Amino acid sequence: MTDHQSNSSDAPEGDPVVLVAALYRFTPLVDHESLQGPLQDRMRKDELRGSLLLAAEGINGTISGRPPVLRAFVQWLRQFEHDGHLPFEATDVKWSGCDELPFRRARVRLKKEIVTMGVEGIDPLQSVGTYVDPEDWNSLVDDPDVILIDTRNDYEVEIGTFAGAVNPKTDTFREFPKFVEENLDPQQHPKVAMFCTGGIRCEKSTAYLKERGFSEVYHLRGGILNYLEKVSPEESRWRGECFVFDSRVSVDHELQAGRYSLCHGCGWPVTAEMKADAKYEHGVACPRCADEVTDEQRRRRRERQRQIDEQQAKQANAASFRDPQSLTI
């Protein structure tokens, strides 16, 4: 299919304790700054947590909350009228669940891009790759003429990726165009398939490749999260866990919270085995980065972690005095 990302189905039946919605929509927004207030107010009113990014090119973000309230918010967003239109009507949403709120606050931020590639003139609304549904993905990547590219960053690829995928070894998405320039050629790589977490980075990466003359460019509709939802583990080509940008850190093939946590020193995922290493210090460093941390950095990070621990203890103490009925999330 060559149409733009279709609308996803409603959230799955069977409520988790907390529902999580990863959403995006490329759509021209006139005076997008004026939308910040209404969206922020609605999130706070509904006691949702997470972040939404607004730019002239659309909306992107991940938010969480009580299942019925979050569903109602998404419905409200899709019916939100702006400049005589419903710009978010076809917003793509990926649903998952967890036991605790994966975010601590609600934020709506204004950005230049809703996913930052840093290349002027790349517009997924004008040119984009061919969408491939999860059910057809395995057949595509089995084609020996297809080169499979993971568009995510190195720390994400570290914990999971598709079998046979190329890792661009980028620290940020801004580095992806340089990877393309140095490693891909339209003549040598006529068929390119790409994937990312929820689909948004591939909107821009496929548009970029089309701009550079690649004729057959494909991307996984709905990203890894959609693939894990639609394809059984027995048939899956996915290996490992999928990094997510919230306190869960990763999700497994059942879209449940995975086994990783995050090193607050270097930002890379860490396992229980790494935490058992003598070089690991919570909130300070992990075996990967411990040898590069200066004494001053250790001091600042320990102080930061002390403040975080104190704040969490205060919140836990305050929660113990609330009405138990209010602690559904």
Automatic annotation (TrEMBL):
<dbReference type="Pfam" id="PF00581">
    <property type="entry name" value="Rhodanese"/>
</dbReference>
<dbReference type="Pfam" id="PF17773">
    <property type="entry name" value="UPF0176_N"/>
</dbReference>
<comment type="similarity">
    <text>Belongs to the TrhO family.</text>
</comment>
<keyword id="KW-0819">tRNA processing</keyword>
<feature type="compositionally biased region" description="Polar residues">
    <location>
        <begin position="313"/>
        <end position="329"/>
    </location>
</feature>
<feature type="domain" description="Rhodanese">
    <location>
        <begin position="142"/>
        <end position="236"/>
    </location>
</feature>
<dbReference type="InterPro" id="IPR001763">
    <property type="entry name" value="Rhodanese-like_dom"/>
</dbReference>
<dbReference type="InterPro" id="IPR036873">
    <property type="entry name" value="Rhodanese-like_dom_sf"/>
</dbReference>
<protein>
    <recommendedName>
        <fullName>tRNA uridine(34) hydroxylase</fullName>
        <ecNumber>1.14.-.-</ecNumber>
    </recommendedName>
</protein>
<feature type="region of interest" description="Disordered">
    <location>
        <begin position="297"/>
        <end position="329"/>
    </location>
</feature>
<keyword id="KW-0560">Oxidoreductase</keyword>
<dbReference type="InterPro" id="IPR020936">
    <property type="entry name" value="TrhO"/>
</dbReference>
<dbReference type="InterPro" id="IPR040503">
    <property type="entry name" value="TRHO_N"/>
</dbReference>
<comment type="function">
    <text>Catalyzes oxygen-dependent 5-hydroxyuridine (ho5U) modification at position 34 in tRNAs.</text>
</comment>
